[in-house]
Amino acid sequence: MQAYIDQTADFVRQRLANAEAGHDWWHILRVWKNVRTLLKQEKADRITCELAALLHDIADSKFHNGDETLGPTLAGEFLNSIGVPENLVRHVQDIIFHMSYKASLGVVSFRSKELEIVQDADRLDAIGAIGIARAFHYGGFKNRQLYDPAIVPDLHQDRETYKNSTAPTINHFYEKLLLLKDRMNTDTAKRIAAERHAFMERYLEQFFREWEGN
Ligand code: ADP
Ligand code: NI
Fold first, then answer.
1. Which residues have CB under 6 Å of ligand 1?
2. Is 102 in the same domain as 131?
3. Is 112 within the bounds of a domain?
4. Looking at per-residue confidence, does 65 or 48 come out higher?
């Protein structure tokens, strides 16, 4: 079983060699580590969680014309090619498909403890110090402003809207990042999220103080 994980890590590391920094191999590595942290407290199948964490971003739909099935399909092809048992492959595919923020906003058609853990691990990487870095990186990549007091956050955005919006990066905190702590599935992730959330709030307070010149 460990061999499956090692081979999958090698595959993903190579596949994401030239990925953009928000979803590069380092993001995968952090999510993988988050999964292992959560598994110290949460009971679930370790192999399933680790394989899904490794494979969850190999074909992000926003880089593939919104195709949400390509990721699970490619993950399945890879896992089959290294001989992973069929039921395990299917579970990993279900996790990847249902993990995206967008899918999670729709009708819930699949749940498992393993999905909850991997989804939490991914969401934890969007908040706290890393989350702040990723947001400003994304904003810079899209040439967004840091902040504009005249442009108020739109609190009812879905993923497609905020990805394509031209709003300043600070708005993204109110439109998504500060909402994530209440979307965690597991108690362990809720505890970690509370700390990372508090750090973002302190960051924003300081940001606005400095914006006003003191
Ligand atoms: P995920 O892969 O978790 O669904 P996304 O693909 O939506 O996340 O976003 C990847 C990273 O880019 C996240 O850290 C997210 O906060 C950040 N990001 C997405 N949209 C914006 C935005 N409009 N402004 C700033 N950061 C953004
Ligand atoms: Ni991710």
1. 22, 100-101, 122, 126, 131, 134-135, 138-139, 159, 162-163, 165, 169, 172, 177
2. no
3. no
4. 48
Handedness of CA 9, 120, 201, 165 (dihedral sign): positive
- Cβ neighbour number for residue 206 with a 10 Å cutoff: 10
Query: What residues make up the domain containing 150?
Result: 126-214
pLDDT tens column, 128-137: 999 999 999 9
Output the domain CATH number for residue 82.
1.10.472.50
The DSSP secondary structure of 172-212, one letter per residue, reads: HHHHTGGGGGGG--SHHHHHHHHHHHHHHHHHHHHHHHHHT
CA of 24 to the centre of ligand 1 (A): 13
Residues with CB under 5 A from ligand 2 (ion): 57, 122
The answer to whether residues 173 and 88 belong to one domain is: no
- Tens of pLDDT, residues 111-168: 999 999 999 999 999 999 999 999 999 999 999 999 999 999 988 777 677 777 889 9
- Judge if 99 and 130 occupy the same domain: no
Residue 205 domain flag: yes
On whether the CB atoms of residues 70 and 61 are closer than 8 A, the answer is yes
Whether 78 and 172 share a structural domain? no
Q: What is the pLDDT of residues 12-45, one digit of tens each?
A: 999 999 887 778 999 999 999 999 999 999 999 9
